[in-house]
Every structure is written in C-alpha cells, then in structure tokens.
Write a structure and sequence with these properties.
Low-confidence stretches: 5-13
Number of strands: 8
Distance between the termini: 58 Å
Shape: flat
Mean pLDDT: 85
Helix content: 55-70%
Order of helices and strands: EEEHEEHEHHHHEHEHHHHHHH
Radius of gyration: 25 Å
Number of domains: 3
Number of helices: 14
Strand content: 5-15%
Largest sheet: 6 strands, mixed
Amino acid sequence: MSGSSLIPATGDRDSSILLQIETSKIFVSGVNVRRNPGDVDELMLSIGQKGILEPLLVRPVDDRFEVVVGSRRFEAARRLGIKKVPAVSRAMTDEEALILSLVENIQRRDIEPEEEYDAIFKLRRLNPVLYASTEELARVIGKSRQYVEDRIAAVQTVRNLRKTGHSRVSVKQAPSPKERKEGVLPIKHATFLHRAEEAPKVQQIPEERRARKLSALAETIAELPRPEAQKVVEHFVMAPQRPMEDIRKESKTLRAVKLELLLDPRVADSLRRAAEERQTTMEAMAELAIHAWLRQNKY
C-alpha cells in the first residue's frame, strides 16, 4: 500500500493491520472528536526521547488514512518532523469511528465538554433512531444517563449565554486558575449554572435581564471551590432579583468564614484586622503572609 509498510506478526481478529504510515498520508477530520490537539510540548519531548509507544488508530479513506484515536500523538510527531508513525488501520463506518474516538477520549479524560457535546450530537445525527434517547447515548459511551444529561445541559447553558452577547463564558473539564479568573467554568460549575437558569424564579425574569444576571453569576462562581460555588448559586436561586453585587459580597463572606474556621482564632483575628486596614480580603492577606514566610525561609 502506498505510503505505508506492514509490520510483521500482527495478531488480527477484527481485520486490523499494524502499519508504519507516512505522516503525509494521515489526516484528521470530523470523526475525531478533538477539535484542537492542545498543548503537545510535553508529548513532543516524550516522543522525541522514547518514540511513539502506542500506535495511532486510523481508518483507510481512499489512498490516505484518517485518525480515529491519537490526534495528539500525530500532531506531536508531525511537529517533530517524524516521517512515519506506527498505526493500527481498521475499516470502520463513520458511526463506529466516532464512537471509538469518543469513548477513548472520555476514558483518557482527554476531551473538553464542548467537544464531547458536539460528538454526542453528531452521533445522534448519524443514527437518529438508535440514539434518540440519552439512555442509549449513555450506554454506547459507557457512562450513566445522568452524566450525559449533565454534559448536555451544562454546555447548552454556556452556549446560550454566549449567544446573548452578554458573556464570553466557556466550560472546561479542569480549567487552570488563570482560566478561571478569566471566567472559564469547571464542568460542575456549569451544571450549577444550568440549574440556576432552569429555576422557576429565574425563568420569571425577562430574557435580556436574565441573561445579564446569569452571566454575572457565571463570573462570580468561576473562581470559587465547588461547595462555595454551589452555595452562591443556591442563594441566587432563592432571590434572583437581588443585585449581583450583593451576591458577590456574599460569596466573599462565605470564603472568609471558611478561612476563619480553618485558622487559629488569634491568627484569624490578625488577618481580619490587617485586611480591614489595607481594604482587601482575608484571603488576599493570607496569600501575602504565606508568600512572605516562604521568602523569609528561602523556599
């Protein structure tokens, strides 16, 4: 086969063939659920030192090969200038390829919620009869019905807010602290936001104002730990007409109370007084004190 060479001794129960394939003959398209390979610097370092330890999974398309699983490995190899990569080639339908890509990435925790959402609905479009229910979607990807429903609800809420133009909110599996400061929600926080959106009292607010309030709520909870984010959302749902500034102050109070409970009372009192003098929060003062101690002790 042009652009590939067989590797001997390939056990084969399902018509799979292990090949060495020229990277110029490989492409990534819609059956691979990852829209972006992301940061592959560490992977490049590993491949540069040890090579590709796990073959890509591809399917033949005309005289080329489409990546089903392993788009990050392929991207890292391509950037390194590697001419040939190991890959298992298997004939499969669009539906089979999409399911394999989705399941593999979910198991690796290597897929973002919006990519997962798009793949789930693409699967439904490929076979609308079989995948009409969330139960069947959950079965085929090896997850619970609640898992699928939460993913769908969270992403739909985030996308609805973006459509209003009041927010640039997005959702990730595990955003970095910097991303959370910029308003990127962890998946569970986006689920809380959906529950707020669906609450009867919130639904009574006119659409334009509701979008603004939910956008402000998303920004408020983005940086909070999960239990505190849930509490803020619960307080918002009870009285959504309140000014969002009150909700923000409430979230800061919750964090300060939690910090005080963790600290020795004398330390907590000193931090509180220092925060008042500097017109900042106890959390900010605690961070400054910790940094000062680390510097003093040469850490």
